[in-house]
Specification:
Rossmann fold, globular, alpha/beta, about 300 residues, binds NADP nicotinamide-adenine-dinucleotide phosphate, 13 strands, 2 domains
Length: about 300
Amino acid sequence: MSTANDLYNFDDLCSWPQSTSDLQPPARLSVFGDPVAHSLSPQMHNPGLNEAGIDAQYVRLHIQPDQLKDALLQLKTQNFIGTNLTIPHKAAAIEFMDDIDETARHIGAVNTVLVDDEQLIGFNSDGPGFALAIREEFSVDLHDLRIMILGAGGGAGRAVAVQAAMDRCERLVLVNRTADKAEALAAELAPFFKEDRVAGPMERLEAISMDEGALTTQMDHVDLIINATSLGMKRTDPEPLPAPLIQPHHFVYDMVYSPARTHLIAQAENAGARAANGLSMLLHQGVLSFEFWFNRKAPLEAMRKGLTEALS
Ligand code: NAP
């Protein structure tokens, strides 16, 4: 296999057979992003494609926002199977899809595109991938959990909140630095929480501010705490949650996966809680993308190995 280590761009895409003539197998899958050089998706998908015996490889494409529509159209003419979309394209791509699945519609974002008979079909594997990651890490389903999302106003936080609502979780507490965004999301998700399920003093669906007093009130009444803020990648980042608030009964899921053991994870473990990083979400969203593209079971362990090696 001759692999692509470099970035491709929109001009390359427009003359794809020439730009990738040195690649074997042919590049028929990609991730569009701006920036995209950091994406680990090729290191996850290429071992999976190889293991499955599929004659295609996966590359990074640097596509700028004003190029998105034309780049998506190019997929149809350049014999692509599909693409992933990352920052900043997930929400913008919706309007260029010929059809989208229910999860992508609710989340309002597409991270996986399938080219099917000249049609662009949009899916979102972030939310369902997160649900699978929680099952893998903690052996429990979103349906059975009282969930708090820190950073619910961001793209990842929204995907996870919508998934938790669609899975009819027991409680959902949306926390965001900019409180308006959490409140708007709570209003949107309210129809999922009409029936009473939890006996107790707390509302099933709440939006709260990120201050310590509001967080403290919630801690006895949540099981799963998710860090979906962009905090945690840098040593100097402030904590997304004051450490003394974490209790032994909590499951703490940090969407950050580099470093593998974030401060939040260390603090959760010190408090006697169970904790996991975001690698399992990255893996399972990739596995689901593979399954949307090929309508067959993905080689999960080959993809996990590729990802783990890329990070080590
Ligand atoms: P995003 O759309 O930019 O959202 C960032 C979120 O972080 C917002 O809620 C923002 O609050 C909050 N935030 C930023 N700085 C903050 C601060 N100083 N204090 C408190 N809150 C702060 O980013 P995203 O795409 O959702 O990504 C969020 C994180 O999830 C990133 O670390 C990303 O790498 C990770 N992620 C992981 C996976 C995975 O597969 N594991 C997938 C997607 C994303 P405001 O609304 O107030 O600005």
